[in-house]
Write a sequence for this structure.
């Protein structure tokens, strides 16, 4: 009797884990609306996905205080999870600890460079010709997280994702 | 009926107790909201395109800090007030921002000097609050600290460039320092003296490099933290809150 009970409970737990894994996979594929080659998981914005009964609770963290994409990301998470059959979704914003550009995954950094944005940390090289020591055109770029640089070798301007 | 919508708190002198954590959050949020609104006035009018983008970016950071602080204040207070209630539905007397941030933009050097004074203060404030026991506030402060350092880098480099520039830019920057210095004591009204000393050292080094003088006049104005504002806040709020005042509860 006891054995049957515990194996039943084990099955419930296993199912819950599968469902949670699926929700996490769906949430992880949501992309940043301003850098659409990167997912919010690769950016380190998606902190946690868990189940609370039938509800999916996704925890995100803002990059910059003024990042206007946060609301969009929240909406995108709801619609992606909704399309995958998760009708009840809570998106929680957590501030502590604050996001750091070090949370961007190695794959995320490669994708940034491939997209023409020099990733944060380390030497800043031109994403086109790989030359170093670019000129800073503007400390503030097209989004809060980027600065505008120009290559001294090939002359091309490019975005740099700031170390933060 | 309309009065209950227009004001979410009782009329009269606001309760301005700096040791009250909700009041302190509102005061810091107000600083950031008002300076963001001021900076927004530069958009499409800044001296160059990069600067237009820079002031817009900086204003967005301030606005984001204000929103996070208002939301947190509303949660701590527990009366269901939202960030919009704080920003859009309070009258002037309930705003607790320092007088410095509501001062008009003036010319570009004026805005950069105001930014230098404010950013140097915010770097100290956020460094202090990032270690607080309130973990939500600590997280907001930790992120704001990195942003404030970047803002300070920007404003101080402009103050140096303008102060140590042409005769014209120097004289304009000095006029700005003379006009705004009187609003700096208020930044440290509720802080221990050590904070002002650190601030004066940071700001003093920038002003030295910019060949700018701190005015001799010891006169200082305060009152913002108690809801007593200069004549400049009212028109700013009138413009910012116009939509909610004309169409209470409007969403879009």
């Amino acid at each position: 009797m006891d054995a049957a009970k515990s194996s039943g409970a084990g099955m419930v737990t296993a199912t819950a884990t599968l469902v949670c894994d699926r929700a996490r996979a769906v949430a992880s594929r949501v992309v940043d609306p301003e850098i659409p080659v990167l997912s919010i998981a690769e950016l380190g914005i998606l902190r946690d996905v868990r189940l609370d009964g039938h509800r999916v609770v996704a925890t995100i963290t803002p990059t910059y205080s003024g990042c206007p994409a946060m609301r969009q990301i929240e909406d995108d998470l709801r619609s992606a999870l909704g399309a995958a059959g998760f009708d009840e979704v809570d998106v929680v914003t957590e501030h502590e600890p604050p996001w750091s550009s070090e949370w961007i995954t190695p794959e995320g950094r490669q994708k940034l460079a491939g997209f023409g944005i020099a990733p944060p940390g380390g030497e800043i090289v031109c994403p086109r010709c790989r030359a170093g020591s670019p000129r800073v055109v503007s400390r503030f770029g097209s989004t809060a997280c980027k600065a505008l640089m120009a290559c001294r070798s090939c002359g091309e301007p490019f975005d740099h994702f700031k170390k933060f | 009926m309309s009065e209950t919508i227009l004001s979410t708190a009782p009329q009269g002198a606001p309760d301005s107790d700096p040791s009250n954590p909700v009041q302190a959050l509102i005061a810091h949020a107000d600083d950031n909201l008002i300076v963001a609104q001021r900076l927004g006035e530069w958009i499409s009018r800044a001296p160059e395109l990069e600067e237009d983008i820079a002031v817009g970016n900086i204003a967005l950071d301030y606005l984001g800090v204000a929103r996070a602080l208002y939301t947190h204040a509303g949660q701590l207070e527990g009366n269901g007030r939202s960030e919009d209630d704080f920003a859009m539905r309070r009258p002037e007397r309930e705003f607790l921002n320092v007088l410095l941030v509501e001062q008009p933009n003036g010319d570009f050097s004026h805005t950069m000097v105001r930014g230098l004074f404010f950013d140097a203060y915010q770097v100290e404030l956020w460094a202090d609050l990032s270690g607080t026991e309130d973990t939500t506030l600590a997280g907001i402060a930790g992120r704001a600290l990195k942003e404030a350092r970047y803002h300070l880098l920007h404003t101080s480099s402009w103050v140096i460039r303008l102060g140590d520039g042409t005769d014209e830019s120097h004289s304009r920057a000095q006029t700005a320092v003379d006009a705004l210095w009187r609003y700096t004591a208020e930044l440290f009204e509720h802080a221990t003296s050590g904070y002002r000393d650190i601030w004066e050292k940071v700001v003093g080094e920038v002003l030295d490099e910019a060949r700018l003088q701190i005015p001799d006049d010891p006169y200082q104005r305060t009152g913002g933290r108690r809801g007593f504002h200069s004549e400049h806040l009212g028109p700013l709020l009138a413009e910012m809150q116009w939509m909610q005042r004309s169409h209470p509860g409007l969403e879009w």
